[in-house]
Amino acid sequence: MLNLNADSTPTASEAFALAQAGLGKRHISMPLDMSHEEVFLLKKEYPKLQALDGGWLLYKSTGGQGKRKLIMIPPDSDVYTGTLLRAVSQGQGRTPCIFGRINQKVLNSDSVADVQLRELIDQVESATEHSIIGLSDEILNCGYTGNVSIPNKDTIVRAIILHAVLWLQPMLEQLREGLQLYGLLSLMSQYPDICQPLFVSGEDVKVNAEFVMTSILPQLSDTGTTRHQVELEMMNFIQDFLYEAEDHGHVDKDGLHPITPATFLQWITGQGHVPLLPSEKKDFAVVIQFNHDCSADFGPHSVCYPVVTACAKTITLPVRHMRPYEKFKNILTEAFQLGQEFSNV
Ligand SMILES: [Zn+2]
């Protein structure tokens, strides 16, 4: 037994100090059919355990003498039994087990990432004598074995937190081992910024003008026609517009909604980030349509705006109003601002 949380076994001199303090090595016989409660016969050998409250975890060393890495032994649905300890010791000779104490500072409801368990904690904390009974099933599923009642609130919450953390830790450690296998772990600590976008829950990959341009799918008229010529001109305008937006952002009169490649993409597609999942990537395109004859739709008029259909990820440009580039820029910027106000309503 150690006197603190450690990630390795003690060195020879540390072990000597521990032995003098009544901690350190002991040989303890544990029957195979030993229950979780009986595992606490350790308290007989180490009376100092009795004074300590809070959660406990068992660790095993990676074997050999001297300073060795410790690996947590994940409890079986939150309990340690003789069978479990036997199973984790097999294949490695007489693997020493070391009792470690869970760091209490780390363990509060903030360490619970699971939404459902967080909710359960909130429900327990605000529960009444009556409503706590309705939570019994969920509480018992977290490995809590005591009486589900208001006086036990704190113990129940602790059990839920422990359950949430213990359930997660072996998975995280497995993930870590897997990453290590391919050397990705050291790469990640060396280049965190580059590696972060590889993980879905991280920050979104930045949308730049180039990304938007490669996502664009213009519905062009037949080559050789005047319309085709105009459409190519529009495509050049879009490109200029996006690269300008990337450099300094187009801002309107009141400067409320700057246009960047990301907000532009958000406007047309409803999403402002690069698609991350392969299924999203496959179908991701911004469709550009060209309306050459808006007077047929609206009769004689002096101004009209591009039409955005976000669910179809399509923008239709009224080309008659969008040449030369200055006009293109003004109309697109105005339409964007109107779109922002519309979506804010
Ligand atoms: Zn028009």
Structure description:
The chain has 345 residues and is α/β, with parallel strands linked by helices. The chain has three domains: 12-101, no CATH class; 109-198, no CATH class; 209-344, Hect, E3 ligase catalytic domain (Hect, E3 ligase catalytic fold). It is 45% helix and 9% strand. The protein contains 16 helices and seven strands. It has helices at residues 12-20, 36-39, 42-45, 82-89, 115-125, 131-134, 136-141, 153-181, 184-190, 192-195, 209-215, 226-248, 261-269, 278-282, 294-298, 325-344, and strands spanning 56-61, 70-73, 97-101, 216-218, 286-291, 307-309, 314-318. A four-stranded mixed β-sheet has the order 4-5-7-6. The two termini are 63 Å apart. The model is unreliable at 101-105 (pLDDT under 50). The structure holds zinc ion (ZN). Zinc ion binds at residues 294, 298, 301, 304, 318, 320-321.
In terms of topology, how is this protein built?
Elements: H1 12-20, H2 36-39, H3 42-45, E1 56-61, E2 70-73, H4 82-89, E3 97-101, H5 115-125, H6 131-134, H7 136-141, H8 153-181, H9 184-190, H10 192-195, H11 209-215, E4 216-218, H12 226-248, H13 261-269, H14 278-282, E5 286-291, H15 294-298, E6 307-309, E7 314-318, H16 325-344
Parallel strand pairs: 4-5, 5-7
Antiparallel strand pairs: 1-2, 1-3, 6-7
Bound molecules: zinc ion.
Zinc ion binds next to helix 15.
